[in-house]
Structures are given as C-alpha cells and as structure tokens.
Amino acid sequence: MLREMKMASANQIKMLVKHFMKKDDARFLSVVLQIAAHEAKIGHTKFADELRFLVEKAKHSMNSESGTPKVLSASSAQMTQPSSDLFSVTHPTINFNNIVLSDDIKLKLNRFLDENRNSKKIRQFGLVPKRHLMLYGPPGTGKTMSASVIACELHLPLFIVRMDSLMTKFMGETSAKLRSIFEYISQHRGVYLFDEFDTIGSKRSISNDVGEVRRVLNTFLQLLDEHHSDSLIIAATNHKEILDSALYRRFDDVIEYKNPSDNDVYELIDSKFLSFDLRITDKENLVNVAKGLSYAEISKSCDDAMKIAIINDNNNIEQELLESIFNERKSYHK
C-alpha cells in the first residue's frame, strides 16, 4: 500500500512537470487538485485546503487576464456580467467509499463513471459517453451527494447552478443567462448540477405564464441538444411528476432515488460510528425506528448523538439515545 502511494506521488510529480513544460495550466492545476484530494483522504486536511486555495487563486488570476467568465472563489463563480452570480463551485473529496446508496444506484453511477473515464476510447468508435444525467427522488436521498461523488471520482470541479439567480421576472433574461451558462460549460470542463431542476423543467401547461416557461424550457432543450463538450450535466429534482415529458429523451440516464432500505439503514448507521462505541441491543428495533427517514436525516441524527457524547466526554452511545433522536426527527414530518 505504501509503495503504491509513493508511486502515485511520483507519477503526479511527473505529470506536473509535463504539463508545466507544455504550458497547459488547466491540466497542471487539475493534477494539483488530485494531490489535494489524496492528501485530504489520508488526513492531511490543512495541506489539502492550502492547495485548493492556491488553485482557486491561480484560476482567478488566469481568468482575470483572459477575460473569460470568472471563477472567483471556492464558494462562488461569476459570468462576464459582474452582477450575475450563477454558480457556486467546489472541489469535492467525497468518493464512493464514503457513501451509502442502493446497489442499483451505485451500479448506474459506476457505469456513468466508467464511460467518462474511458471517453477517448469510446469516441474512437464514433460513440459518445453518457454526459447528461437526471436524478429524481425525495429530499435527502443522495442526489446532490452523488453529483459530488461523480466530480471527485473524475477529478473535476462541481458547479452548482444557482436557480435563484438564474430565474428572473424579465422576459427573455432567463434564456439569455442559460445561454451564458452553456457557453461556460463548453469552455470549462466540470460537473454542472442543476438542482431543483423542476424550476425550469416543469410542464409547459402548469404555469400562469405559459409563454415564458415554454421559452425557457425550449431554450434549455435546444442548448442540451447542442452540448458536445466533455463537461457533465446533472439535473436533480424532488418533483419528477411535474417535469415536462420532452426532457426524458434528452438525458442519457434517469435514476430514481428512494429512502434507504433496512440494509442501507443499518449500513449507514454502522459507517457513522467508527470512532464511537454504539451499544446496539436490538438491531431490528433500531432499524425499524429509523425507517422512513432519508439518508440525510439518519446521518444528521447520528451526528447529533455523537455531539452529545462528545459534550459529555463519553465514547459510548446507547441505542436508546439514538432511537430518541430518530423519533424526534420523524416528528418533524407530521
């Protein structure tokens, strides 16, 4: 294992020198982000954060000189219009080893990743890897996390389109912003997440302002059809039932997310308490109490139990405490 880690570091140094000699700044910075992700994984989080900060600073400098749309920081991005913050951008470090999802979803995500890892090989045969993905399901079931995992596994930045900035009341402005976003997507490879996608993808007959909704949706469909770059576009929604039917054939894959199964519930709980002693007396009852909660709600409940233990200088967590927190969380649904 240690030998493999040293070999990875040596290869990364060689790639840095190679890209530096070619003056390929984008690939040079991409390798630096790979090193940062590796350092974070082995616990060197401060060093990883410093590397990411330097990369963002370098990108800001490069964009300022080139006049291209500007990525300002790790938390915001900006198009050529100074007042239009249309993205938030991060460099995720969470990978498949850090998440719990159903086997069916993992299979589909892995297939999506495999095609993009082998993009050049696939294109040599005149085929195109999957680049457009739609995720739907209840809140907290892992849709946004899946986008983060895809970005991490492919060593790409994750851009989240800010719907509050995209949607405006002025006729034609939303469509113009969409065109700017897709122009940016074509010029800057990354994973682009349109969260709460039903905001622009809703059926063209359910709005009072049918004309404008139709224009925005038609613009998106046209831009998606015309998108040929290696950037990946992910749409996520909690409300699949209100999406326009014309959307589905535009996406390479559509994945349904559900609340966790019994096995997923226990696997998630078990993965959360690696540094604590969770004293389970009745596994079946614990799972039954958590049933109905989303992945995010179960994870937050486990975090709450650990924080209580930390405050009380206790490494042991009783099942009764965790069950009471689950029940409290379920009471929010009423």
Tell me what you see in this structure.
This protein has 3 domains: 1-66; 68-256, P-loop containing nucleotide triphosphate hydrolases (Rossmann fold, 3-Layer(aba) Sandwich); 262-331, Orthogonal Bundle (Helicase, Ruva Protein, domain 3), CATH 1.10.8.60. 54% of the residues lie in helices and 10% in strands. The protein has 14 helices and 8 strands. It has helices at residues 2-21, 25-41, 45-66, 103-117, 119-123, 143-153, 163-166, 173-187, 198-201, 210-226, 262-272, 283-290, 295-311, 319-331, and strands at residues 87-90, 132-136, 158-161, 191-194, 232-237, 253-256, 277-279, 316-318. A 6-stranded mixed sheet has the order 1-3-4-5-2-6, covered by helices on one side. The protein has a two-stranded parallel sheet with strand order 7-8. Residues 1-8 and 64-84 have low confidence and may be disordered.
Draw up the topology in text.
Elements: H1 2-21, H2 25-41, H3 45-66, E1 87-90, H4 103-117, H5 119-123, E2 132-136, H6 143-153, E3 158-161, H7 163-166, H8 173-187, E4 191-194, H9 198-201, H10 210-226, E5 232-237, E6 253-256, H11 262-272, E7 277-279, H12 283-290, H13 295-311, E8 316-318, H14 319-331
Parallel strand pairs: 2-5, 2-6, 3-4, 4-5, 7-8
Antiparallel strand pairs: 1-3
Helix pairs in contact: 1-2, 2-3, 8-10, 11-12, 11-13, 13-14
- The first-level CATH class of the largest domain is given as Alpha Beta
Radius of gyration, Cα only, in angstroms? Answer: 22 Å
Question: How many domains in all?
Answer: 3
User: Which segments are poorly predicted (pLDDT under 50) over 5 or more consecutive residues?
Assistant: 1-8, 64-84
The residue fraction in helices comes out at 40-55%
Number of helices: 14
Q: Which range does the strand content fall in?
A: 5-15%
CATH topology title of the largest domain: Rossmann fold
How far apart lie the N and C ends?
50 Å
